[in-house]
Amino acid sequence: MSRRVGAMDPAVFAAFNAHVSAVRFTPVRIREGYDMAAVDDLLDSLVVIGASGGDVQKAVAESHLPVVRLREGYAIAQVDTFLKEFVRIARDPEGLLRGSSPYPPHSAYPPHQTGGWWSRFFGRRSG
User: Fold this and answer.
1) How far apart are CA 41 and CA 3, in angstroms?
2) pTM across the whole model
3) pLDDT per residue over 43-64, tens digit each?
């Protein structure tokens, strides 16, 4: 359970917001992915919740990200991994200033295994 605290220190909030703003997910086509706009909206709301000391873990658990197939979406495994990490960071946002995040904020979050062309064509997820 996430602890409830007061608003974040401005330097911590800047690092927290920069971490979320810099994340890049792999776009997927043909196979299932999360709706891009829904993921972006969720991340925006999580930054506000985390900055105000709200319960990020509860917000993530209660979120529902629509899955898309016939249009571009974000790689599901990457988004799920980032959300788990985001909950951890929200518990100790000062850790971003200490550099305790295991993923660099300006890279794709983390690499996703896509399998071969045939598995992507027939919609089999391997990640």
Assistant:
1) 23
2) 0.70
3) 999 888 887 878 888 999 999 9
